[in-house]
Amino acid sequence: MMNIIIKHLFCFIWVCAAVVSLSAQTDNYGAGNANKRFMPSLGMLGGKTEFDYLNLKNHPGNSGVPLGGIGAGNVQFAPDGRFARIGMNNIHLPIKKSKASFFSVWYNDGVKSDAHMLVNDPNPQYGISPVQEIYYKGLFPQAEMNFGNSVKGIDIKIHAYSSLIPHDVKNSSLPVVFFDVELQSEKDGEVAVAFSWEDFIGRGIKEPESIEGMDGQIFSHGRDRLCNGEAWPDRAPEQTFTEKWDCGRLSGIRQFAAKPLEPIRANFQNYVNEVVLLAEKRDDMQLSVLPAYDIASGAQAWKGFKDNGLFGNADRDISFLSTPHKQDGGSAIALKTKIKKGEKKTLRFILAWYYPEIKIDRKNDMPEYYWVGGSDYGRYFHNYFNDLTSLVDYAYQKRSYLLEKTSEWQQPVLNSTMPDWYKFKLINSAYVIYTNMILNKKGDMTVNEGGMGGLAGTMDQRISSHPFYQKFFTQLDRSEMDIFADAQQSKGNIPHFVGHYYIGMGTVGGRVPTEDSWMTDNTGGWIIQLAKDYQQTGDIKYLRQHTGRVHDGMDFLKSLMPANLEIPIGPTTYDDFTHPPVYSYGAGIYLATLKAAAVISKAVGDIIKEKEYNGQFIRTQKDMMRVLWNGRFFSYGCEIDGSGRLDNILFTGQLGGQFVSRYCGWGDIIPMDMVKASLISQFKISLSKTPDYYANKVWDINQNKGIDNRGSQCWPFYLESYTGYPAFQAGYCADALEIMKHIQLVHLRKGWTWCQNLWNPAELSYMTAPVTWFSTDVLAGAGLNIPDRELRLAPVINGKDKVVLPLFYPTFWATLTIEPKTKKLSLEIIKTYGNNNVTLSRIVSEPNGESTGNRQIVEIPEFSVKEGNVLDLSPYWERIVRINTDKAILPQADQVDFITVK
């Protein structure tokens, strides 16, 4: 009896301790509010499934390819010819649409002249007719637009681009956009192109009415409500002006405020105070300018261009542009030239913006004005350019190089044999690096979550969102990882956030404004990504810097285990719907974390810790199966003692840990027959019953419907990574691709390709869209372990067609070519970075649909990873390549039996 009393007393004490430790977790950091902002998406699913992805016709213009730079602001050139989601000033809450930012053309073929707005609107603007057709090729950060037969007698193509060059942060963080307008005429004639830009200086900026009380941690004393920048009022508009402006061979208009815009409180919005729209001057072209016009009544201002392709001569050096209370202004420039029959001409335009660095006077500024313990508020380009002239001149001189190197990372994708929808999805999913990434002068980086009041550096989402910048901007990826490491709390936990768009961000050696925020997968996710970085870079020095923090984090997770259970209990990323304490996602991610910690311990020679984590893995895996496996899938969750198991709720996140572990090369954490059974259950019960397979993450089997909170129809990015990718790994390749394709279709049909939402089909720039960059490895069954000189490869082929797949890693890129007819298999190294001394001596094949325990290990002659080298793997064809014989499950899910695993 006494033993029973002691046992119950211990459990009571543990529960009390858990309540105390989780007291900071009662708030879901804004997820609830974010869900309420978006209505359920009933009736918005299903529809057109086939698009000409690389030539979209008359596509909705709710979003477009973002153009600008990392941390420097962006504007989106939309498929309807307008500019949308203008984030020059505020990337978190961009201005949805511009009234007066567009291109226009005037053409005279010697018989008659005509003018057209190069926008696909139903009504004329300023007396100028719109075009009837626009064909749009959007591949971030480039967009091409042509207009079919809309403008008789002349072909027009606009090529818009900005710079994004892997591992070159300087040239990827420039607030500069290039527009090359290519013309070809059917007759001798004259043509003019105008570029108009609306005044956005000081517009769309949110500022608090008072900064009182903003001098401390966000998650204390109700300060989170003060810091929610989405609720701040708009900053009062500025009086703005224009003047003629020249920079070398460029000439045009400068829009500006009389003085730099001073923030009420320092933050990461861009206080742009000058914008230029410029054209390249040439002897055979005539430049005319419209310094300022009222965009509400601009017909008279545009009459000269409409009639003869020229704006009237400006009679003043400086003109008023916009007034604070009455007039919104715009500016325009035009190039006019003669053109011969069949001749091709290119007219070049540039848009650029600038804002001075926000500098903190740490001796005299009020502590409420800035985040005292954190990093600076400058931008990376402030390291190199202290004025607009130097910025524009540099970008113009480097424009060809910038375009070449930006196109370079896209070309292997476009050269692949994957379908156009996949190429489109993969390249464009990278847009978040412009729309959400915060990058300051010091080089500290964090990512704005989106729809969360400004919270940034979201580690739980980072597990899925990081692949693009980890592969292509490892320096930035490590910056955020280092800030998380430095912000590790005294209990050993890695925090949930490390920054805030409207408040500030942490820095190594400082503090973060978001302490006391954690989830179990924050610590686990950080450890997993650290281990993956080590394997893909081979950088043992970097790993050793953080090894102590890894052990502290693992001790913290172990401290969350209650008596008689080997699974940590605590909140996870799935924070918008109640779940029991024992949770299938949390348990699975912990198993992957144990694998990662063992990899790290082995790398640094800590045999004791490696043994400890491997032993814990066995115990935790056993408990996960004991309390959560119901024979067909892992239950949503249960109570600590195993009671109350929710077998009636099917959850799309249950295989999260399985995907991560297998992707990283650490093997299955769950037997493959259980993985397949889980996926078949998801396919039959929820995905196949939902249009576009866009299923709720939480599905009540008894009610036969999703039961997520209002506004939370689906978590599409996690559906991709934790259902779609495990499906590919389990051999359901066709189904995985269909899930990926339809997640895109849901956003694409509404014109939301470049502003996707986590919770439902709605307009929001959410951080996790780059999850698709896992897929280059998943499709090839690929992975890299540089310290072990190991490359994993297990491509799947259908039929006899040649397959070409791109592979990207931080230190090199490669192309994998598979030719079934001749059984030729080769890997060509197409790009290397850094002091690349990478060699490979082993190929590991873990075929999709089979347990990793059945892997094939192929020893090969030492291969040096150098640009141009080709590794011929044809002799090992039978051991590496898998012929796909599996039929798609989703289209015939009702005809497929459940799999039961005891």
Automatic annotation (TrEMBL):
GO molecular function: hydrolase activity, acting on glycosyl bonds
Keywords: Glycosidase, Hydrolase, Signal
Pfam families: DUF608, Glyco_hydr_116N
Glycosyl-hydrolase family 116 catalytic region domain mapped to chain residues: 489-690
EC number per UniProt: 3.2.1.-
Record bears the keyword Hydrolase: yes
Every Glycosyl-hydrolase family 116 N-terminal domain range: 64-399
SUPFAM superfamilies named in the record: Six-hairpin glycosidases
InterPro entries: 6-hairpin_glycosidase_sf, 6hp_glycosidase-like_sf, GH116_catalytic, GH116_N, Non-lysos_glucosylceramidase
Domain of life: Bacteria
Signal peptide: 1-26
Protein name: GH116 family glycosyl-hydrolase
Source organism (scientific name): Dysgonomonas termitidis
